[in-house]
UniProtKB/TrEMBL annotation, chain A:
Protein name from the UniProt record: NADH-quinone oxidoreductase subunit K
Oligomer status and interactors: NDH-1 is composed of 14 different subunits. Subunits NuoA, H, J, K, L, M, N constitute the membrane sector of the complex.
Organism whose genome encodes this protein: Dictyobacter alpinus
Subcellular location: Cell membrane; Membrane
Membrane topology: Multi-pass membrane protein
Originating gene: nuoK1
Catalytic activity: a quinone + NADH + 5 H(+)(in) = a quinol + NAD(+) + 4 H(+)(out)
Automatic annotation (TrEMBL), chain B:
UniProt protein name: NADH-quinone oxidoreductase subunit L
Species annotation: Dictyobacter vulcani
Cellular component, GO annotation: endomembrane system; membrane
Gene Ontology BP annotations: ATP synthesis coupled electron transport; electron transport coupled proton transport
Record-annotated NADH-Ubiquinone oxidoreductase (complex I) chain 5 N-terminal domain positions: 70-120
From TrEMBL, chain C:
Record keywords: Cell membrane, Membrane, NAD, Quinone, Transmembrane, Transmembrane helix
Source organism: Dictyobacter vulcani
Protein family per UniProt: Belongs to the complex I subunit 6 family.
The UniProt record lists the keyword Transcription: no
Subcellular location: Cell membrane
This protein's record includes keyword Protease: no
Superkingdom of origin: Bacteria
Catalytic activity: a quinone + NADH + 5 H(+)(in) = a quinol + NAD(+) + 4 H(+)(out)
Protein name: NADH-quinone oxidoreductase subunit J
Entry GO CC: plasma membrane
From TrEMBL, chain D:
Main location, first listed in the record: membrane
Annotated NADH:quinone oxidoreductase/Mrp antiporter transmembrane domain residues: 143-442
Biological function: NDH-1 shuttles electrons from NADH, via FMN and iron-sulfur (Fe-S) centers, to quinones in the respiratory chain. The immediate electron acceptor for the enzyme in this species is believed to be ubiquinone. Couples the redox reaction to proton translocation (for every two electrons transferred, four hydrogen ions are translocated across the cytoplasmic membrane), and thus conserves the redox energy in a proton gradient.
Gene Ontology MF term list: NADH dehydrogenase (quinone) (non-electrogenic) activity; NADH dehydrogenase (ubiquinone) activity; quinone binding
Name assigned to this protein: NADH-quinone oxidoreductase subunit N
Pfam families documented for this protein: Proton_antipo_M (PF00361)
Organism name: Dictyobacter vulcani
Transmembrane segments annotated in the record for this chain: 12-35, 47-72, 92-112, 124-142, 178-199, 219-238, 258-283, 289-310, 317-337, 349-370, 391-411, 431-447, 531-552
């Protein structure tokens, strides 16, 4: 398959993630959508690494993986701690500050 | 030459710092010691420098002293320096001298105010800023001083911030001054682009391309017009009368508003490079002089009469500068500082005696009770009316003479018209000044009896209702009115003396004493006058006519109001037009403010509901409205924010897709 | 059609479907499961692209560890959370967001399609992945060499990232008491 | 080099400040373990936690600063770790900026944390240090890998710091919003990096620069899309319009010392990466990206200032003002892309950041001293008459606001002046005009807050209860509690009043007199730290504009070395 096929596949997944962030109200699902976006980029990186014959892309994937893991730990802990306080994690309820 | 100008700058700053930090803990005497001391010593330093300068040969009178060498990287350099030459010397003397008198006067005027220390701190700050403006040796620090005097004016107009009208006035002044500052900034950047430097020594000897020179000169004049309340940026000055009266005298009559006149004189080589800009200066000056004088004819609030008169007199000064006679402009600035400060202080004394009353309809007959004030007020009125031999006569005469001479020299009919406007304005000035004088001092006291119908002048009513600082509890009984204390009357007397003799520093060429014109000889060391020299005949014509106009004006006022002022409703449309200040405020309100308010109200109601409190008015509402509208974007919803980000992304991506 | 193309198309359809599932399912547990499937399919893509090590890591860490954490939290919180119960405060967001998403994917695809026709520059000899794979006898070894030599620094920095994450867990976790 | 680069001690020397910071972060965590947490006496009253940790942290920062300063004079390589991390003078300068911001933020913290009775602080200080590390990494990145890792690192630390105060709904909300939006934006950044990699085949700046130079001014489309998406990621961190939306909410909800620190640190990190990528790497295709950055700069400058006008909450006002300042800085990016002008634009950015650092942290520092434990106390109404209650604090706030407004002789003026000068020299006079218009607008809202502080607040009931002569007591227990109970919270419009209830109730439930008094006394002890920070910030604000210009040529040299 040509490179463009992989890249467009990746763009498609990325956009699905973007839409997920915009339309869902559950922060967990928003968070999953962001993971989806990151993975879409990873697909690009692996494909590029293959087609460009360079290791940089795979290295990026590896780093993104680690970053995502760290982000998940912090993010989930934050969501849980908010849940414990207000028993509600709807992001639309979080708009005390505005203007 | 002894040069103490640095101390003139630093002493008021020191005073401000001391008062600002510790003023609230200090007893009144200490506050006065610091406030007066700072200003008095500054005046002393200025005077010493002045006499030392007089003793120096004319060619060596300019001293450009770099105090602080600031930034220097490549072509980019900035120094802070003090330029002491006859022009800045004159200004320094006026600023610190009149400033000192007003400091003294304020001690009496503000005696009952709880924020006594704050007032003196602000006054010292103003003196510092004004001195900075005057003696900076480059445009950048001119801008600094320019901005700081604006700030000081803003603070002092809003000094009685409990009055809503005072706050609104401060805002208006601020907004218009910002327009001027903006013009000045643009001019400075143009200068920098053209000349590569900002110090006067370099810039004023630099020759700019014609178009650039015109642009620079016009932008500078925008700044001058805003600061000196010329058409069409004059609206703030009458409102600025909300401040305490000494402030009106110092800032809004004698010194700050003349900064524009000073700037034109300072930057005259730039103006010389652009005849078009000079014509604009002269034209605007003449138009403003006439326009403001007509408004002043029928005002009822005594301070507003004086405010419009100030605008009109400033117009005279620009008129002189527009016909290349810069020293005449400065001359009138000086004499005007004397008699206008005196008029304001006298008005202040009247207001003080009547416990905050400013409406002419409730005065009258005060000659019997306020002798010193009345006498000095009379002198000042004669001076501003251009009656020989008072100060105003000499300076006004020189201006009108040089306008006529310039018209004669160029053969341009517009300058004859300008001259005619000047004569007409002189007559009107005499009329409204004596209308004011008779209104206050002649006839019977009307304060106790008249109930003013409120459909005449809303502003006055509002001020009364909100008057703070003066405990205004009904009209004052005639017998309880008494003249001011010495602390206030001494400055009045000194200023009165100056208003009488101040003119002799100017030109006496009229009487065949061509060499006896100290100021005119003093200033040209700094600026080479390009003024047209008229023949003696022309001078006599001009002088005679202006004197005649003045006498006629006084006569008319005597006829109408000599027996005391009587306010009559007049339904003549022309009268109504002038009485309502040409409806400028109303038009602005209708054209700009009300639609903006309505628009933003509708928008905000549509979007959320109650948002805009009706309290904020003025042009700032425009920005407020925009701002309030724009902050609606910040909905507080995380998902909306993400949408905003995506919108940005899509715009960028599509831009590149289309562009390829 | 070769096996290559067929497998790509099958995988592409499956991945897209499961990815859509992530954002479409009402129940968060279903979304999480769907995301796990997506990640597994992505690992298959990586295999197809001969990135053996990354594919394995993807399954182990992403699908195996991260998503388990997700599922754990989701099952802990999800039962109370039913999105459809509450009225959407900003209903227009869905439409605008969807439209913008469509524009985004269209523009991106167009650009990627035209752009990827120009083959990018191949890596120089010293950085060539295929040469390294042959030299070090395998993908994983080559990856390790790169990680501990050329990319040592970012690798070290990830350890700091993990420390930050641990501190975060500590901060938020302690509050529960 | 990918597979056989071997690390030498030189590499570690080049990143000495970062190493010092990391080691100190670990030390702080260890010290935290040793300190007495449990015991007979209440944790709150033991002063050890509140002074030992910040002292250690501050020492660490001083050590890192010393390391950076020594590096200026020691011969070392300009780029280390396989061309991934810069150690040139420009980078070191940026490191110093981040360290100063962090140091001031940490000085502001003890009194603040004490007031909130946060006992477990080891994490707080360690996270501050790690966030600084991340910022320094991003600022020194010479490879997109490091850009991404550094960005994620400080973002992660900041998410946690923003939501550090458990009893505040606002703090949690701020952390949550920041977390989700920032992750969202960094996904775009990552995608952008991927596309740049796709076009050029490399991830290190020098290689990408080589590739771009070969294109002869016409970037391939993948590179264009890539740099577009990269812009999004950077612009988010610089809070450029329209990516600024998170800024006011996060700044308002976060603890004030953290806000002070992050408002500077984030900008330093993002702008350094920004200027490296756009001003140096991509400068040969400037025509392709200029329209976007130009538009961003103009939008940001105008919208930031406009939106700040109607704010009545000073923390939000400062947030919008920081948006506006980000816009001014973007002008520097535009200029730095101009051929032959890279160093002027870049040095204008460094200079402006230095000026902005002190005045902004100073302003937020004053707020951190005013803030009450329920995150109120800095509304326009609260500031009214501040001069008569706490003259020194009000004076300092006025000073910093004037500096931010750009009044000479404070730093803000010099910074703006040089930036606008660079716009003129760089051939963008229109940006100069827009910038000047916007800063004139800006003066309005700063002055508004200043004016309010100097008004005697006769008509506010609370002021009446405090005698004007004893200006030193900001928060007597009575004022605090009654203030937070009776006054509606600034943002409790619509349905959010319910959501705020727990926080309010908490404050009210406290055993009011005793606890509050003790707390105040102890806080008073710790306020020395905050005062120190304010004094440093004030001096910096005064001096930077006056003294730093002497070193402008050196600064320009340093800026030029950002990418050799």
């Amino acid at each position: 398959m040509p490179l463009s096929a992989y890249l467009i596949m990746s763009a498609l997944l990325f956009t699905i993630g973007v839409i997920g962030v915009l339309i869902r109200r559950n922060p967990l699902i928003i968070f999953m959508s962001i993971e989806l976006m990151l993975n879409a980029v990873n697909l690009s990186f692996v494909a590029l690494s293959h087609f460009l014959d360079s290791a940089d892309g795979q290295m990026f994937v590896f780093l993104v993986l680690t970053v995502a893991a760290a982000e998940v730990v912090v993010g989930l802990a934050l969501i849980v701690s908010i849940y414990r306080r207000r028993h509600n994690i709807d992001v639309d309820e979080m708009n005390i500050m505005r203007g | 030459m002894t040069n103490l100008s640095l101390w003139v700058l630093l002493l008021p700053l020191l005073g401000f710092i001391i008062l600002g930090l510790a003023g609230r803990f200090m007893p009144r005497t200490a506050i006065l010691a610091v406030g007066w001391g700072a200003c008095g010593l500054a005046f002393l330093c200025a005077a010493i420098s002045f006499f030392s300068m007089l003793a120096t040969p004319a060619a060596q009178r300019t001293s450009d002293q770099v105090v602080y060498h600031w930034i220097s990287a490549g072509t980019f350099s900035l120094d802070f320096g003090l330029l002491l030459d006859p022009l800045s010397m004159t200004m320094l003397l006026v600023v610190t001298g009149v400033g000192l008198l007003i400091h003294i006067y304020s001690a009496g005027y503000m005696a009952d105010d709880p924020s006594f220390w704050r007032f003196f701190a602000y006054l010292n700050f103003f003196i510092f800023a004004m001195v900075m403006l005057v003696i900076a040796n480059n445009f950048l620090f001119l801008l600094v001083g320019w901005g700081l005097v604006g700030l000081a004016s803003y603070l002092l107009i809003g000094f009685w911030y409990q009055r809503r009208s005072a706050v609104a006035a401060a805002q208006k002044a601020f907004v218009i001054n910002v327009i001027g500052d903006f013009g000045l900034m643009l001019a400075i950047f143009l200068i920098f682009q053209g000349a590569g430097r900002l110090d006067y020594a370099g810039v004023l000897t630099h020759t700019f391309p014609a178009a650039t020179a015109t642009a620079i000169a016009l932008l500078l004049f925008v700044a001058c017009a805003a600061k000196s309340a010329q058409l069409p940026l004059y609206m703030w000055l009458p409102d600025a009368m909300e401040g305490p009266t000494p402030v009106s005298a110092l800032i809004h009559a004698a010194t700050m508003v003349t900064a524009g006149v000073y700037l034109v004189a300072r930057a005259y080589p730039l103006f010389e490079q652009s005849p078009a800009a000079l014509a604009v200066v002269a034209g605007i000056g003449g138009a403003t002089a006439l326009f403001a004088a007509t408004i002043a004819l029928f005002q009822l609030d005594i301070k507003r009469v004086l405010a419009y008169s100030t605008i009109s007199q400033l117009g005279y000064m620009f008129m002189a500068e527009g016909v290349h006679n810069y020293s005449a402009g400065i001359f009138h600035l000086v004499t005007h500082a004397f008699f206008k400060a005196l008029l304001f202080l006298g008005a202040g004394a009247v207001i003080h005696a009547l416990a905050g009353e400013q409406d002419m309809r409730k005065m009258g007959g005060l000659w019997g009770r306020l002798r010193v004030t009345g006498l000095t007020f009379l002198i000042a009125s004669l001076a501003i009316s251009g009656i020989i031999p008072f100060a105003g006569f000499w300076s006004k005469d020189e201006i009108l003479g040089s306008v006529l001479a310039y018209g004669n020299q160029t053969g341009n009919v517009w300058y004859y018209i300008l001259w005619a406007i000047g004569i007409l304005t002189a007559g009107m000035t005499a009329f409204y000044m004596f209308r004011l004088f008779f209104g206050i001092f002649a006839g019977d006291y009307r304060g106790a009896s008249v109930a003013v119908n409120d459909n005449t002048n809303g502003d006055v009513e509002e001020q009364e209702a909100a008057a703070a600082g003066h405990h205004h509890a009904g009209p004052v009984r005639y017998n309880s009115i008494h003249d001011v204390a010495p602390v206030m009357s001494i400055p009045l007397i000194i200023l009165a003396i100056l208003s009488v003799i101040g003119g002799f520093i100017g030109s006496m060429a009229l009487f065949g004493l061509p060499n006896w014109s100290p100021l005119a000889n003093f200033l040209p060391a700094a600026m080479h006058n390009h003024a047209a020299e008229g023949s003696l005949t022309l001078e006599w014509i001009s002088t005679g006519l202006s004197l005649l106009a003045g006498v006629l004006g006084i006569g008319m006022a005597w006829r109408l109001y000599g027996k005391g002022f009587a306010f009559k409703q007049n339904s003549n449309p022309l009268y109504q037009l002038v009485f309502h200040k040409y409806y400028v405020d109303e038009i602005l309100n209708a054209v700009l403010i009300i639609p903006v308010l309505a628009l933003s109200r509708t928008l905000s109601r549509y979007l959320e509901g109650d948002v805009l409190d009706g309290g904020s008015r003025g042009i700032s509402t425009l920005f407020r409205g925009t701002s309030t509208f724009m902050r609606r974007v910040q909905t507080g919803y995380m998902r909306n924010y993400a949408l905003g980000i995506l919108l940005g992304v899509v715009v960028i991506i599509v831009y590149y897709a289309v562009r390829g | 059609m070769t096996f290559d193309i067929v497998s790509f198309i099958v995988l592409a359809v499956a991945t897209t479907a499961t990815a859509l599932g992530v954002i479409a399912f009402k129940n968060a547990v279903h979304s999480a499961l769907s995301l796990i499937l997506t990640l597994l399919f992505l690992a298959l893509f990586y295999l197809q692209l001969q990135a053996m090590f990354i594919a394995v890591v993807q399954i182990l860490i992403y699908a195996g560890a991260i998503m388990v954490l997700f599922l754990f939290v989701v099952t802990m919180l999800a039962p109370d959370q039913n999105e459809s119960d509450l009225k959407d405060a900003i209903p227009w967001q869905r439409i605008v967001g969807g439209l913008l998403g469509l524009v985004l994917v269209a523009a991106l695809s167009y650009e990627l399609f035209t752009g990827a026709q120009i083959t990018g520059p191949k890596a120089a000899a010293g950085n060539s992945l295929t040469q390294a794979v042959t030299a070090y006898h395998g993908d994983t070894q080559a990856f390790g060499m790169a990680l501990f030599h050329g990319f040592l620094f970012p690798f070290e920095v990830t350890s700091l990232l993990i420390i930050v994450a641990i501190l975060g867990a500590l901060v938020f976790g302690r509050r529960a008491n | 080099m990918t597979f056989n680069y071997s690390v030498s001690p030189d590499d570690w020397l080049g990143i000495a400040p970062i190493v010092v910071l990391v080691v100190m972060a670990l030390v702080v965590m260890l010290v935290d373990l040793v300190l007495p947490h449990e015991g007979q006496r209440s944790k709150h009253s033991g002063p050890a936690n509140f002074t030992v940790l910040p002292a250690v942290t501050f020492l660490g920062i001083l050590a890192a600063m010393a390391a950076a300063i020594v590096l200026f004079f020691v011969q070392h390589r300009a780029a280390v770790f396989n061309q991934m991390v810069g150690a040139d003078n420009g980078t070191l300068y940026a490191d110093l900026l981040v360290l100063s911001a962090g140091g001031l933020g940490i000085l502001l913290s003890p009194a603040y944390l004490k007031r909130l009775r946060l006992v477990h602080q080891g994490e707080y200080y360690a996270l501050m240090l790690l966030a600084m590390t991340g910022m320094m990494l991003m600022a020194s990145a010479l490879s997109f890998l490091i850009v991404f890792v550094g960005l994620e690192m400080f973002s992660l630390a900041l998410y946690i710091l923003c939501s550090f105060i458990e009893q505040r709904q606002m703090s949690q909300e701020s952390g949550m919003k920041y977390f989700l939006l920032s992750s969202f934006a960094s996904a775009f950044l990552l995608y952008g990096i991927a596309l740049i990699y796709a076009a050029s085949g490399r991830t290190s700046f020098v290689d990408v620069q080589q590739f771009v130079l070969k294109q002869g001014g016409h970037a391939p489309i993948l590179l264009l899309v890539g740099l577009g998406l990269l812009t999004v990621g950077f612009a988010f961190k610089v809070s450029a319009v329209p990516f600024q939306t998170w800024t006011p909410d996060v700044y308002q909800g976060a603890p004030a010392p953290v806000t002070a620190f992050m408002s500077i640190g984030t900008k330093v990190a993002a702008l350094l990466a920004f200027v490296r990528v756009f001003g140096f790497v991509l400068s040969s295709v400037q025509n392709d990206w200029l329209p976007i950055i130009w538009t961003l700069a103009v939008l940001t400058v105008l919208a930031g200032n406009l939106m700040a006008i109607s704010q009545s909450n000073i923390k939000r006002m400062l947030a919008y003002s920081s948006v506006a300042h980000g816009g001014y800085l973007l002008i520097g990016i535009v200029i730095s892309g101009q051929a032959q002008q890279n160093h002027i634009g870049a040095s204008a950015i460094l200079f402006y950041l230095t000026c902005y650092l002190f005045m902004n942290i100073g302003a937020f520092g004053v707020i951190s001293m005013l803030e009450r434990s329920d995150n109120s106390g800095y509304d326009l109404a609260d500031l009214r008459g501040l001069w008569y209650r706490r003259p020194v604090l009000a004076g300092m706030l006025a000073f910093f606001l004037l500096a931010l407004a750009g009044f000479p002789p404070m730093a803000g003026f010099a910074g703006k002046y040089y930036l606008f000068y660079s716009a003129l020299v760089g051939g963008h006079p229109e940006l100069l005009v827009i910038g000047v218009i916007a800063s004139v607008l800006g003066i309005y809202y700063y002055l508004r807050f200043i004016a309010v502080m100097f008004m005697e607040g006769r008509d506010t009931p609370r002021v009446g209860t405090i005698p004007t002569t004893s200006g030193k007591i900001p928060t007597t227990p009575r004022t605090r509690v009654s203030g937070s109970l009776s006054r509606p919270l600034p943002s409790s419009r619509g349905g959010t009043a319910v959501a705020e209830k727990p926080a309010t109730a908490r404050v009210a439930d406290l055993p009011v007199p005793a606890a509050a008094v003790i707390e105040n006394e102890n806080t008073h002890e710790l306020e020395g730290w905050s005062w120190l920070a304010l004094i440093i910030a004030g001096l910096g604000t005064l001096l930077v504009g006056v003294i730093l210009p002497f070193w402008l040529p050196q600064l320009q040299q340093a800026a030029q070395s950002l990418l050799k």
